[in-house]
């Protein structure tokens, strides 16, 4: 029985390593030099939409990095101040804007059935349509805690034009300074690439669709084709929902890592990271107890069982388990190198996986206790899962 378990774990890992889009690789990564491959005499309009709620600490450096973009075409930035309780809007308006690129919109209270962030994004898109009625060019969705290198917008547009893509998304560099961040943040990226292997997302023939909300460049005609932001109404995993809509409409996607954008949002404690995971983990599972059970079993087979077999089993089962455990650790090393961390952090992977499993269970418990998803002082008890299927969505102020 133990040997059969060891063989099953080994088969799972063989499938993951060789037949799952090489999820463990560190790339792809867009470099600034990529911008030179396209005809930069054709520089379409780009409108950046930034939803912000209580982002006083990061809003000025984030917006300043966007206003300082080295882009040959027309670039405009729309900040939607999503009813902040701090001075986010005042700080944004106080920024020097010599090229007259910035518009600050004071957001309205979310309409029924909308998640707060998406309602802010929808208002930003409406302002973008008002500013550029012909609907050409691109919209760049980004967060209020991200710093962009001067060449970032040019590089994103170059990628979209060169490869004829409808949507370009990047996983920005995440903060990795505190002990909790070093222990848990690289695994967040690693597990994301396991769920959404970049090679599969980028393959037009594969149904896998994913995106990272920190950087999404989208053709405006594609946004209209999928029905606008209204198509995502109520979604809590809005980035992957958007990617799914675009791919189902025949759009071509790109998802990779960024070396030109970095989040400055800190997660100083394990509790902060727990709350980040628990916020949407059960949404990812479509609020399904059956999928939760399957996910927990999968986490045990993939991450915990090989380690247990390697240290506790005997004979052939131990050897197979040890080999499988070694493969799982090696798969994590490219991600650790990306974060400039020692490969010895891989030894903690079973404990990290246990933490993520517990946070996922906690997400489900929160939902069934009626707490729902809480973010920026708003709580949501139901939502649209990331496959785009509509469920009744209700929101309340926490």
Looking at the structure, what is the overall shape? globular
N- to C-terminal separation? Answer: 49 Å
Please give the largest β-sheet.
Answer: 9 strands, mixed
**Spatial extent as radius of gyration:** 21 Å
What is the tally of beta strands?
12
Order of helices and strands: HEEHEHEHEEHEHHEHHEHHHHEEE
Low-confidence stretches: 35-39, 383-398
Strand content: 15-25%
- Report the helical percentage: 40-55%
Structural class: alpha/beta
Average of pLDDT: 90
Give the helix tally.
Answer: 13
Pfam families: Glycos_transf_2
Protein name: Glycosyl transferase
Transmembrane segments: 183-199, 291-313, 319-337, 344-365
GO molecular function: transferase activity
Task: Write up what this structure looks like.
InterPro entries: Glyco_trans_2-like, Glyco_trans_2_hopen-assoc_HpnB, Nucleotide-diphossugar_trans. GO terms for molecular function: transferase activity. The protein has 398 residues and is of the alpha/beta class. The protein is built from 13 helices and twelve strands. It has helices at residues 2-19, 59-67, 88-93, 116-131, 152-162, 179-195, 198-201, 220-225, 238-248, 270-284, 289-312, 315-338, 349-368; strands at residues 29-30, 46-52, 75-81, 102-106, 138-142, 146-148, 167-173, 215-219, 253-263, 373-375, 378-380, 395-397. Strands 1, 2, 3, 4, 5, 6, 7, 8 and 9 form a nine-stranded mixed β-sheet that branches. α2 links the parallel β2 (46-52) and β3. The radius of gyration is 21 Å and the shape is globular. It starts with a helix and ends with a strand. Mean pLDDT is 90; it is low at 35-39 and 383-398.
């Amino acid at each position: 029985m133990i040997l059969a378990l060891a063989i099953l774990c080994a088969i799972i890992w063989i499938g993951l390593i060789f037949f799952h889009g090489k999820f463990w690789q560190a790339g792809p990564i867009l470099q600034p030099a990529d911008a030179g491959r396209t005809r930069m005499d054709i520089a379409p309009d780009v409108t950046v939409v930034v939803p912000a709620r209580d982002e006083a600490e990061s809003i000025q450096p984030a917006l300043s990095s966007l206003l300082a973009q080295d882009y040959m075409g027309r670039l405009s930035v729309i900040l939607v101040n999503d009813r902040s309780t701090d001075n986010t809007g005042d700080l944004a308006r106080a920024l020097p804007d010599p090229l007259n690129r910035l518009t600050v919109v004071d957001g309205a209270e979310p309409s029924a059935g909308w998640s707060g962030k998406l309602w802010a994004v929808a208002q930003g898109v409406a302002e973008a349509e008002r500013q550029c009625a012909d609907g050409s060019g691109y919209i760049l969705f980004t967060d209020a805690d991200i710093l962009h290198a001067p060449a970032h917008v040019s590089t994103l547009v170059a990628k979209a034009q060169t490869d004829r893509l409808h949507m370009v998304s990047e996983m920005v560099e995440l903060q990795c300074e505190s002990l909790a961040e070093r222990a848990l943040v690289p695994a967040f990226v690693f597990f994301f690439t396991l769920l959404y292997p970049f090679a599969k997302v980028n393959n037009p023939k594969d149904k896998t669709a994913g995106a990272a909300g920190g950087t999404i460049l989208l053709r405006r005609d594609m946004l209209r084709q999928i029905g606008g932001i209204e198509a995502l109404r109520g979604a809590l995993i809005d980035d992957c929902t958007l990617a799914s809509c675009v791919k189902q409409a025949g759009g071509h996607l790109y998802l990779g890592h960024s070396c030109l954008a970095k989040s400055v949002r800190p997660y100083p404690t394990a509790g902060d990271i727990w709350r980040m995971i628990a916020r949407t983990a059960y949404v990812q599972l479509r609020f399904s107890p059956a999928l939760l059970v399957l996910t927990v079993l999968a986490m045990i087979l993939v991450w915990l069982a090989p380690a247990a077999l390697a240290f506790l089993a005997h004979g052939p089962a131990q050897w197979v388990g040890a080999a499988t455990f070694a493969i799982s650790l090696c798969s994590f090393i490219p991600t650790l190198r990306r974060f400039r961390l020692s490969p010895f952090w891989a030894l903690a992977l079973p404990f990290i996986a246990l933490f993520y499993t517990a946070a996922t269970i906690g997400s489900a418990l929160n939902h069934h206790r009626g707490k729902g998803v809480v973010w920026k002082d708003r709580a949501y008890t139901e939502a649209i899962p990331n496959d785009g299927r509509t469920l009744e969505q209700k929101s309340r102020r926490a």
